[in-house]
Every structure is written in structure tokens, then in C-alpha cells.
Amino acid sequence: MDFAYDERTRDVCTRTRTFLDEHVLPAEPVLDAQVAATPDEWGPRPVVRELQEIARAQGLWNLFLPGPRGAGLTNLQYAPVAELLGRSPRLGPVATNCAAPDTGNAELLAEFGTPEQQERWLDPLLAAQTRSAFCMTEPGTASSDATQIATRIRRDGDHLVVTGRKWWSTGAMNPDATLLVVMGATDPEAPRHRQQSIVLVPRDTPGVRVVRPLTVLGYDDRDHGGHAEIAFEDVRVPASALLGGEGDGFAIAQARLGPGRIHHCMRALGMAERALDLVRERAASRSPFGRPLAEQGVVREWAAESRIQLEALRLLVLKTAWLMDTVGNRAAMTEIQAIKIAVPRAVQQIVDRAIQVFGAAGLSEDQPLAAMYAAARSLRIADGPDEVHLSSLGKAELRPRPT
Length: 403
Fold this sequence. Notes:
- There is one protein chain.
- The chain has helices spanning 7-37, 46-57, 75-85, 92-95, 102-112, 115-126, 249-285, 297-326, 333-358, 360-363, 369-379, 386-397; strands at 131-135, 152-156, 159-170, 177-185, 196-202, 208-214, 227-238, 242-243.
- By secondary structure, it is α+β, with helices and mostly antiparallel strands.
- A hairpin with a 2-residue loop joins strand 2 (152-156) and strand 3 (159-170).
- The radius of gyration is 21 Å and the shape is globular.
């Protein structure tokens, strides 16, 4: 088997790494200072716009999106790029206009949007002129299973009326998030996977009410728009705001989540590699008990276990990306579920070890490790908790197979 990246992948990775080393990583303390100077603001700070201009000029823009509107990379080609961007989770993705939730929403608009919807919403997203939020999760239901969503979308003449409550709508506290992509039930009596639809709701529509921001283990993620609870109180939009057809919501959401999980997993692996870089520096410079941490047996074991996990999981994610490119998302579902379970769990463990190496400093804001831990931990719940995917994957694994 040939595990080498093709020429285009190598080229984009080289340019992305240079961009990170020369511009993104040095900008991290600048972002911290700008957030501290504007504590009441939600959304990108000036340094983000500066980095975006550099990335656009260098052709490192919309790398996540295949086809003529994006960079034209396949899932397999983009995967290692996403890993590099994950080394700076707060700046790498947004600097290249590859940050969630806009990536998933842009993919939906590119695949299912009408020309009018694409002109109104997709083009500004791809130009970083606006932001968006995906409104699926609900406080009152186990809404990682879309068939349990309680938000209603009912037709009233040539309008659709949305009523319900969403939360964990990432990015929605950002005033630039002018588009809310909302999933709701249009026909509760339809077959289980044909009950849902997705509608495009402008943020300024009467009846849309941002209830409050939410925190992730104490982090408000203010610099990229946070996470909001939103009430939809008889929100009326034209019927033309429907994305795809009525009853297509479940299938559309699944189409969004497949590539999104590749992106999340590769960024998470990049985050873990960054954590290991920090451990390497710490282990060489810190000498408790008369000798460097790098000579302590337990630290060596942690480093070895982390390297084994990263190498194995990277190959699994790349295999998943290759399957998605060659046989499609549905045929790659086993692998998509596997990486959704395995990668965040391993990355959480790797970052936890790194925190332990740093001791009290690892828990502080002086290092990015605590924020990394919060991000990795949240991924074990986002897009469905581990237990849901384990159950589904186990069920598939235990089916009788043809001999």
C-alpha cells in the first residue's frame, strides 16, 4: 500500500505549515491581548482579519470545500491540511476560512442550495463577509437523534413558521452570524427519517431571540462567536427558505456530518500534536528530583503511548477520507463512526497527560492545554455522544455476515 500524499497535498501542506509558523502561531498572543482589551465583544478580532488577508493572498482559502467554489481538494487531500490547522485551533481554521460551523453550512448550501440561496448565503460565507450557525441540538430532547427533534416547521400559505428552542448553536453569539440553519419537524406522522426539514432563517427575522450564551467547561469561546441558546417564536420565513425538499432534513444533516467529522478529527489530531510539542519542550527544560522530566520513565511511557495513538488514528482517519472519496459517505459509515468515537477520546487522554507533565501550569491560561482539553472533551458529545455511536457501530458489527 502507498501511504504517501500526492503532489498537490504535499504542496498545500507545505504552504499551510509555513503560514502557521510565520503568521498564525506568532499571532496567538496578539489574539489573547485583543480579546482581553474587548471583553464584551463576540466574534473575530482585528488579527483574524489580518491573517485572512494573508491566507487569501497565498491561496490558502476555503480549503475544506471541494469543487469550483472551493480549493477543489478531496477529503483525503484536505485531511492532513486540517490536521495542520488544528495545531492552532483558535486561529488556524478561521484564518483560512475553514472554521466550523461555516464549513458544514457552506457544504450544505453548495450541495443542496438553490442558485438564489447560494447567491444570498453561500457566496458571502465563502468570502468571509458573514458567519452562520447550525441549529439542531435542543435542551429538551436527545436531539443527537434527529428523529427526536421537537422544533416544528409548519407551512402557512407561502410561508414556513418555525417554533422551538435550540442550544449549542456554535457561533450564534457573533453579530456577524446572519444565517441560522435550522432543523425541525415538518411532518411528525411521516416515516421516521422523513419527518425533518431544514430551513434557512435570517438572524434578524422577527421571533428569533438569542436567550443566552453557554460555556464549555467554563470557556465562553467568545473570540469565535461562542455557543447560544436561541428561541424561535413563530418565526415566519418564505417557503423558498427551505433547503432541499420537505422531509429531506435527516439526509441533509447526515451529508453535513460526514465530512464534518473528518475535519473535527484531523484538527483534533493536530491539537494533540501541538500538545506533544509542548510536552517535549517541558520535558527537556524541567528537572524535578535532580533530573529532566525526559528521563522519567512515566513521562517516556506517556510520550510513547501518545505517539502510538496518534499514528494509528491518523491512518484510520485517512482511510475514512479515502473511502468517502471513493465509495461515498454511506459506505464509509462504519469508519466515520469509528473515528468519531476513537479520536476525541484519545486526544482527550493525550492532552490530559500533557497537563500532568506541566502540573499546575497546565491548568492555567499560561498554556493552551486546558482549552484543548475542554475542546477534546466536548467532541465526545458533539454530533452525538460516544455511547450512541458505540451502540450503532456494535449493532452493525454483530450482524451476521455472508460466508
